[in-house]
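Sample intake sheet
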Amino acid sequence: MGFYGKGDDRPDWKKGNAVKWVAVVVVSALVGSAATFATIPMLANHGVIPASIQASTDDTGGLSQTLPTSVNVNVSDGITEAVKQVEPAVMGVVNYSQVSDFFSQNNKLQATGVGTGVLFYKKDKYGYAVTNNHVVDGAAKVEVVLGSGKHVQAQVVGTDPYTDLAVLQVPVTAVKNIQPARFANSDNIEVGEPAIAIGTPMGLDFADSVTAGIVSAKKRIMPVEEPQTQQTLDYQAVIQTDAAINPGNSGGPLINIHGEVIGINSSKIVAQNFEGMGFAIPANEARSIAEQILQTGHAVHPALGISGYSLNAVPEQYWPDVPVDYGIWVRAADSSDAKAAGIKSQDVIVSIDGHTVKSMADLRTYLFQKQPGQTVTLRLYRGSQQLNVKVKLGEMKSVNTADTPSNDGSSSDSPFSVPNFFGY
C-alpha cells in the first residue's frame, strides 16, 4: 500500500469497487484472526508468549475468555534501577595544571580538564576511585567532585599509560555514605546486552549524565595513545558500545542492567559520518591494574630489556643494512638477560613468538600478553643474516604520569627527541 494524494494516482472509488474493498478487508481480518488464534497455543508451548494470555475455547469452538489487549514490558525500569545503584559512586575528576600568568609572570593552578571516576574500594582512612590515565596526565593537583557538588582534593596513587588507567585516593570521610560500585566479570558480557554510561560530558555542568545503548562488540583492538603527543603506545582489546560517550565521560563506568561495572569508558571515534562508536576498557583488566597500583603504586608489565625505536621512526640514512623496512631497531641491550640472549645494538627485531612486529606498539601488544620470567623467541636481522634468539623477560613498572607533564612536543618514539627506553 502507499499514500495517495489528490492527483491522477487516486483509485476509482465507485460503489462496486468500494464493496469489493470492504469484502477484501473483512475476509483478510477474519483469516488473520483465525491464524492468530490457531498459533497462540503453539507460541505459548514454546515460551514465545506467556501462557496466561493463551485463549481457551468451548466445545463449539467459540472463545470462552477474552485476550488482553496488550502486554506491557517496561525496559526503562531496569535501567533506572541500575543507575540508582551506581550513580552515587560516580564522581567528576578535575585536572589542575601549572600555567604561567602573562601579567604577573607567576605560575598558578588552573583547571585544564574534566573527566570522570568511579569509587571501587574503601578501607580504613581512604576511598579509592579508578579513572583514565589521560584524565590526570600532567596534573599538579587533582580534585574529585561528588554527587553532592562537594569538591575533594585527591591524591594520584598511580597511573599506567599502557592501559590508560589511574587510581585516585580520597579521605574515607568524604565517601563514608557511598557504596563502592560492583565490578562484573567482563568475560561474560554478551553482544546486544544493555550498556549504560555515566559520566561528566562537557564539564561539571553536565555531571552524572546517563546514556544507554548496547554492547556492540566484546573485543575491538584499539590503540592506546600517549596523551600529549598522541603517539600510539599499545593496542588493547576493548568493549565497543553505541551508548553516547563524549569528552568528559573518560574514566566513568559502563554498566550492565544489574548495576555492575563492565568497563571503564575511555574513547570514541570522532569522524564525519561516524557515530555511536565508543569504547571501554574491560572491567577485568581495569580491576587487575587497579589492584596492582593499590599494592605497589604502579602496574607491572613484562620487559624485553632493550631500548629501541620503531624502524620507521628512524631516518633512513641511519638504518642498518637489513632486508626489511619495518621492525624494532635496537639501540642497546640493557638487561643482563637481553645481553645473555645475544641481542646487540643495530639488530632489527621483526617478530616475537611468530607474531610480526612492525612498531613498538606491536611489540608491546604481544609482549604484554606474557608474564615476567617467561621466555619468548625473537626473530631478528643482523645485517642480512636472520637469527632466532630466546630471551627471558624482565619486569617493567609503570610511571606516575601525574605532576610529570611531557608537553614539550617531543615524540617518545624518535631517537632525536626523548629516548623511549623499553626495558628497566
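Comment: The radius of gyration is 30 Å. The chain has four domains: 15-53, 83-175, 185-296, 300-397.
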